[in-house]
């Protein structure tokens, strides 16, 4: 029962942490025929209006009429406070809770971190 409560609390913390965002204005340019084409720009790349994507830097980005928005996902979503006796490792974009005294074991269950093939 304690492990189920722990997992539920962690899930709520992770899903509610989408708060580290940045924004950019909509850009526009004239085409050869004189039409106005609107787009967003991210790291020098022009992004079409309506496009959405995730990056390996753990950002979820979207280009809309309002401009460009990127928000952190996973461990970049915001501050996640681990429970006492636990630490957070970055497993790709996902936060992985491990025991402070033994990083090879998951926090709460004590099961091994590594997944066997």
Automatic annotation (TrEMBL):
Signal peptide: 1-19
Subcellular location: Secreted
Main location: secreted
InterPro entries: PSP94 (IPR008735)
Keyword NAD in annotation: no
Alphabetical list of Gene3D superfamilies matching this protein: Beta-microseminoprotein (PSP94) domain (2.60.40.1900)
GO cellular component, one term: extracellular region
UniProtKB keywords: Disulfide bond, Secreted, Signal
Keyword Disulfide bond: yes
Family according to the record: Belongs to the beta-microseminoprotein family.
Identification of the protein by name: Metal binding protein
Organism whose genome encodes this protein: Sinohyriopsis cumingii (Triangle sail mussel)
């Amino acid at each position: 029962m304690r492990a189920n409560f722990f997992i539920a609390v962690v899930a709520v913390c992770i899903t509610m942490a989408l708060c580290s965002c940045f924004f950019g204005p909509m850009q526009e340019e004239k085409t050869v025929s004189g039409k106005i084409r609107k787009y967003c720009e991210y790291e020098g790349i022009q992004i079409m209006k309506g496009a959405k994507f995730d990056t390996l830097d753990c950002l979820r980005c979207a280009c809309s009429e309002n401009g460009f928005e990127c928000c952190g996902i996973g461990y970049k979503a915001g501050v996640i406070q681990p429970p006492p006796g636990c630490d957070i490792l970055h497993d790709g974009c996902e936060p992985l809770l491990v025991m402070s005294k033994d990083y090879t074991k998951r926090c709460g269950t004590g099961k091994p971190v590594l997944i066997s093939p």
